[in-house]
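Regression test attached.
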Amino acid sequence: MSREASPAADTEDVLLSFLDNDGAVVEAKRRFTTASFLAFVRTQEATRRDQQAPRWVWDDTASFYPNLLAADVRVQRCYDLRLSHTILRNSSLTRKSALAVAEPGVWDASPAAARVIRETGTALFDLQVELAPAPDPAAEFACQLAAVASSSEPRRIRLLLAAESAGALVAAEMRFAGLPWNTAAHEDLLARELGPRVPYGVRPDRLEQLAGTIRTLLGEATLNPDSQQDLLKALQNAGLQYGGLPLLSTQQWHLTEIDHPVIAPLLQYRKLSRLLSANGWSWLDAWIVEGRFHAEYLPGGVVTGRWAARGGGALQLPKQVRGAVVADPGWTFVVADAAQLEPRILAALSSDLAMARAGHGTDLYEGIVASGVVETRAHAKVAMLGAMYGATTGESGRLLPRLARAYPRALGLTEDAARAGERGDIVTTRLGRSSPRPSQAWMDAQAQAYAQSASNADERRARSQARDWGRFTRNFVVQGSAAEWALCWMAEIRKQLWLLEDETLAGFGRSPAAGRGRGLFGDAPHLVFFLHDEVIVHTPIALAGEVAAVVTGAAAAVGKLLFGTFPVDFPLTVATVQNYADAK
DNA sequence: GGCGGAGGCGCC
DNA sequence: AGGGCGCCTCCGCC
């Protein structure tokens, strides 16, 4: 639980400053102890709520903000130096800045390494970092402001840094609040599927039965179905084939194609075994505290700008267990997801009016069908995904030419991004996050293929690696720009919920700064879950309508923010439900 | 024993 | 021969 997740920093001075409404640094290079800082923030945030809030500038939201939350302090806005540094270091929009051309330093180290350096003054393994000067947030901040100012697109990069920083606040707050989780409902589900609870390491009844069935059907009395090697051998011995050849893998995808009595119980075994190991009783014990799942989100954890998560698999929550996500009594969930977000982002990025029009007022894939490009929604979807992921074969590959004829600008953008990657160039998202450069090994392999001594194998390998990297950059632009849309969406939702909270509290005759009855978020709606293109807000039932309006309004606002007057829609599917499983 | 790769599979 | 992740288990290796 987040209250004890981060070590208290009582002895550590924290250096902070904040920006006023015009972006000027009001207070810089002031050192606080944690206690005095808490008091200072309380005053600032309470007295300035009705104005534009200060933007706190600090080195690392993830290591610092949880302490504030634990002390019942929320801040409205911040600037995260660590996350911003990573963006500015790599962005093509700031490539000529002093920050981008400097040697790697402490701001390029991982958060854990940076913490070690901060606390001990030395790094354990990295000589280059060890020789770097101690981190100076004020100097770093000045360096970052200069990088932004030197950018060819300062508005975009500034927006990206603000969104990334707001995301860091949201991530810490969501972890702190936790996703409401009904342990009893989860246990019921496990008992229904697996049988009565068993100690760790023991196979539940239902799995034991299925294992017996599989052993009988394969004539292998001692087979362990958890061992891929044993299983594959047994399947081969039983004569199972795939495409006329002996089975080489036990993947679901291959097994489903095979007609044999063992397949059904085997797939069922796999499914339940997965449930047990990923979201079984041990998972409940480890991750659910007082009816909440406190997932740790990692903003900027994926190179494309998507979030990653650590612990409990928050971003892989199977549909199977979503029935355990239940709102508190008197509360409900507003669940919203952006419909066909990535293709809509692609349409806007490439200014493809025809594709944008196909998504106007309707399901984008249906719109593609209605335009006569392909026959079915399923075809439209697989073709679009193929365009964004770089499929070349199968149904997707066959449909691509038709898509390319109908939407030359959109498909041209994905092709250009792929070619750039194949050359070893970087690509950049809407707001300015750039892809990493390929590794030295990759560059060497490409150079090797042009050498006189190059063998056919060298050339094949180089071509294959070039195509792999091209698929990465092709996807990077779309996935990364979609991640920016989602970050801005969440930031806007958070801002509007904050305003809604102030109004509501004022309506009850309480001052916004007054203490709240139910912990940090009081009776206020707050974000509790995020999944790439989907959010959940936990809200008192009476406010659900207003929350739905906030979420919808935010999506519209963000479309304008990122793409101006380009006529692209970002429709949402919004559901107000007591139980996450009932959404969609 | 711990570590890490591979296989597999959950989410988008 | 389809992009991005995290996590679990098995299994070979040190």
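Expected vs. actual: identical. The radius of gyration of chain A is 26 Å.
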